[in-house]
Every structure is written in C-alpha cells, then in structure tokens.
C-alpha cells in the first residue's frame, strides 16, 4: 500500500471522530460514517470522479479548520468543547421547537407547550376521566419506568 494511501486512511480514521462525534446522539459510529460518506461522495461527484488530498481534507474538517482559524490558528480544549456543546444544544433546541411548534413559525409559545401537554395527557388518560392512573401509564419506556411513577417498585411517589 502506498504511503499516501496509508496517510489518507489514517486521516479518515482520525477526522471522522474529531469532526462529528459530538454531534451524534444515537448510533454515533454509523452516523459518522454516513455523514463522512455523504460528504466524500458529493466531493467526488463535484470533481469529475476524483478528489485530491487537499479536497479530501477540506471536505472532512472544514468546520474544525474554520474554528481553528477563527481562534488565531490555535484551538484549546475549552474552546472546542464550548463550540461542540453550543452546536449540540442548538440541535436539541431545533428538535424541541419542531416538536412543539403548532403554527410552524419556528417560535415556541406557552400555547404550543400547553397544546402538546394536553395531547400527551389525553393519550395517557385512556378512560377519559380527566386523571391519569398508574395502570394507564405505559409499561417500561420513558414514562413507565421513571422513578416518579414508581419506577417498577409498585408504588407512586
């Protein structure tokens, strides 16, 4: 195997985790590989079927290189952690807004929250008596196994 090929493979092994690990919540490895392959396939398609190492490098770590450049050519652990945390929480915020936003305007209001709560309450109140009893809660899963609802020990707290 040529030295340049070995170098490129080593770079892939390091670049994927550095560039995307903090952004994936579930199936981190699969999501990293999928994202990496999408970026590489796009780069190859945009470049007549081949890419150079420089093009590969730009595709793999453009955001990371921008962070380094934006910080005077050096990036500390704290700066990188702050940037990764900010992006992670922005993604979480987008998912929450999308889940609750009833008008589709990208804004969250108390009416949106109350509407979602009413919908969830109605789904849990299987006998429509305006109360949720323990036997109406799902078994296991997020709510059924939660300590607040007894957590499997047979009593509500």
TrEMBL record:
Gene3D superfamilies: EF-hand (1.10.238.10). One of its GO terms (molecular function) is calcium ion binding. Residues 141-157 have a biased composition (Gly residues). Residues 1-24 form the signal peptide. Keywords: Signal. Residues 121-137 form the EF-hand domain. The keyword Amino-acid biosynthesis does not apply. It comes from the Bacteria. Residues 131-157 are annotated as: Disordered. This is EF-hand domain-containing protein.
